[in-house]
Specification:
The chain is of the alpha/beta class and 128 residues long. The protein is 16% helix and 33% strand. A hairpin with a 6-residue loop joins β3 and β4 (45-50).
Length: 128
């Protein structure tokens, strides 16, 4: 099994699309109510769905970037605002926090080997 995509709700499709293009994603589907993007590295995708009614989204999107600090500075130069600059976290990741125009939380991070192999890793599988 492989994760295909995550879909985020957005209030204004045009504004949201412009934001994600500025972050460096490539748009591969474009409709008035739905947009889909591919990540700059690999083949992971995510999408946006226009939500005209009130909603609350507690999901957080994480995008890993090798050169995190440099990428954050380049995005700041493009006018992207960060709620939290890159900082080292106790779970061995370095991450920065920002919000898209619809209030979806995004973390840009660098985890290296700790992403899949933290010191506390376990492998629990269904035994049935």
């Amino acid at each position: 099994m492989n994760l295909n995509q995550v879909t985020l709700p957005v209030r204004n499709m045009r504004e949201a699309v412009a934001f994600y293009l500025k972050l460096g994603f490539t748009q591969i589907v474009d409709t008035p109510h739905y947009a889909r993007f591919i990540c700059p590295e690999g083949d992971a995708t995510f999408s946006l769905s226009l939500q005209e009614t009130a909603y609350t989204n507690g999901a957080v999107l994480y995008f890993e970037i090798e050169e995190l600090d440099e990428a954050v500075e380049a995005l700041r130069a493009k006018g992207i605002e960060f709620a939290c600059p890159p900082q080292d976290m106790r779970w061995l990741w370095r991450e920065a926090v920002l919000w898209d125009p619809s209030g979806n939380k995004i973390k840009l991070y660098r985890a290296g080997d700790s992403r899949l192999n933290p010191p506390w890793r376990v492998e629990v599988r269904d035994s049935s």
